[in-house]
Every structure is written in structure tokens, then in C-alpha cells.
Amino acid sequence: MTATEIEGAEVGPRRGGRPTRAEATRREVHLIAVATALFMERGFDATSIDAVAEAAGMSKPTVYARYRDKRALFEAVLRERIAAWLAPLAAAAEAQAARAGADVGTDDVEAALHDLSRTLLAHGQSPGAAMLKRNLVAQALQFPELARLAHEEGWLRGVRAVAQLIEAFARRGRIAAADPEIAADLFLSLVLGRSSQAILYGIATDPETQERRRAAAVRLFLDGVRPR
């Protein structure tokens, strides 16, 4: 959703009194949504508190009452986006690990990794995730704690989740992985590496070529972990 689409959607307080807790929550959600649209469209430097307040239909003092400055508002936006866009990547891997049954066969391992890789790739290439990544890279020096948060909640959580899946398969003798976390990190790198770079630079990727690379990445990984 763009800032233009969001503008004017804010729900104000009741007439003649302070807003209820529910109304205050709606106002906060609206403010973050407007700020998100502006920051993601324009970047940190080109977005002002004045612009956010105007687009949200709020006064500047109202915005400053919630966030001491633009940096604090940007941090709130990125934390919300990290939770919304990056954490689901890891959640998909965790779901696959949870579904790994006791009687998993070799074909099931391959099917699970193909399903997981498709989910990770599709989610990682969503427009919102792409804009978030560009903003994080652009502001990594100013906001190192947020870059760490994105790394921990996105990549590292994903590595741990995939490692659980790999470890479950390894315990049943379906694959061989002496260090599941290293194997998981390599799997994610194979699947997401090139597409992540293309997204960062705004380079369009041919879907057919991308699918061939994804399938090849899964096969290459499986060739490296098949029991000898």
C-alpha cells in the first residue's frame, strides 16, 4: 500500500474526549503504516516528519509525542517490517521441520526441500521484502542494531530452522550432515544468494531461469548430503 492509498484512512478519537485504548492503537497502526509507505518509497533521508504527519492526518506534536525524532520512527517502522517480512522466511522452515515425520523417505526429503525453497524464494522476492532490504543496506551504518536484528530474525533464525529439518532427516539416515547449521546456511545461500543480490540492485529475474536455478540448487545440495 502506498502513502497516497493510506492517507485519509486514519481513525480519530471520539469527539469531546480522549481516545480509547482501541482508538489509540488504531492511530498508532495508521501512523506506522503511513511512515512505512513513505520510508520505503523515498528512503530515510528524503522522508520528513512533516511529510509523515501530513500524510497521516496528524499534527507534528502528535507524532513527536510518540517518537522523539525521525530516527526513532524509522526504527519502529523497520522493527515492524522485519517481523512482518523477514520472520516468515524462518517460520516456513520451522513448519517444514515440524512436519518431518518418523518415516520420511529420500523422495520426501527432496520434496520437502523443493517446497521449502519455493516458499523462501517467493517470500524473499516480494516487493515489501525487497524495499526493506534496500533500506536496511542503505542505513546499516546509521542503524547497526537494526541490521543485526534483521540478520538474527531473518537469516539466522532461518538457518536454525532449516538446521532442525536437516538434523531430523540426518537422524533417520536419509542424509548425512555432520554440522546441520553449516549445511543449512549453505542451503539458504544456494537458494537465495543470487536472487537476493538481484533484488537489492533492482535487477529483474526471468521466472523460468530462476526456477531452473532453484531446482538445481536443491539437487546440488542433496548431492552433497546423500549418505555414502
Total helices: the number is 10
Distance between the termini: 51 Å
- The gyration radius over C-alpha positions equals 21 Å
Mean pLDDT over the residues: 84
- State the share of residues found in helices, binned by percent: over 70%
Work out the number of β strands: 0
Low-confidence stretches: 3-14
Largest sheet: none
Assembly type: single chain
Order of helices and strands: HHHHHHHHHH
Helix/strand structural class? mainly alpha
In one word, what is the shape? Answer: elongated
What portion of the residues fall into strands of 2 or more residues? under 5%
What this model shows, in words?
The chain has 228 residues and is an all-alpha fold. The protein has helices at 3-6, 21-42, 49-56, 60-66, 70-99, 106-124, 127-138, 144-171, 180-200, 207-225. Helix 5 packs across helix 7 (127-138). The model is unreliable at 3-14 (pLDDT under 50).
